[in-house]
Design goal:
By secondary structure, the protein is an alpha/beta fold. It has helices at 11-23, 34-41, 60-67, 87-96, 108-119; strands spanning 3-7, 27-31, 48-51, 78-82, 100-103. A five-stranded parallel sheet has the order 2-1-3-4-5, sandwiched between helices. Helix 2 (34-41) packs parallel to helix 3. The model has no long low-confidence stretch (mean pLDDT 95).
Length: 120
């Protein structure tokens, strides 16, 4: 199964994501902000990143921009998971390297569907 880096400042979201992903056999690495996640990414490779957009320390857009500068992260899928759904934010996300968008609140089925699209 996949190694997945999940980043969200809300503990409840991190716990929900971890539960869903581990249920499907994935190995999950959780962080509460982009700065911590970036530090991890400089030393570890993953198959997928799921990141919140609005976080303290380093937001999702900055995290994606920084991850895309790391050779091993240039081609892996990165999904933004947020309550925001404006076309402007989605276009900005794509422009910095996001692969897709998951709108909160999410369901297990929506997460599973997104993973099937980007990991297959």
């Amino acid at each position: 199964m996949a190694r997945i880096l999940a980043v969200d400042d809300a503990l409840a979201i991190r716990c929900a994501i971890e539960h869903i992903l581990t249920t499907y056999g994935h190995e999950v690495f959780l962080f509460e902000n982009g700065k911590e996640a970036l530090h991890f990414a400089r030393n570890e490779d993953v198959d997928l990143v799921i990141t919140d957009l609005n976080m303290p320390e380093m937001n999702g857009m900055s995290l994606i921009t920084s991850l895309r500068r790391i050779e091993s992260y240039k081609r892996i899928p990165i999904l933004i998971m947020t309550t925001e759904s404006s076309d402007y934010k989605k276009k900005k996300g794509k422009s910095v390297g996001a692969t897709g968008w998951i709108t909160k609140p999410f369901t297990e089925e929506r997460i599973k569907s997104a993973l099937n699209k980007v990991l297959s």
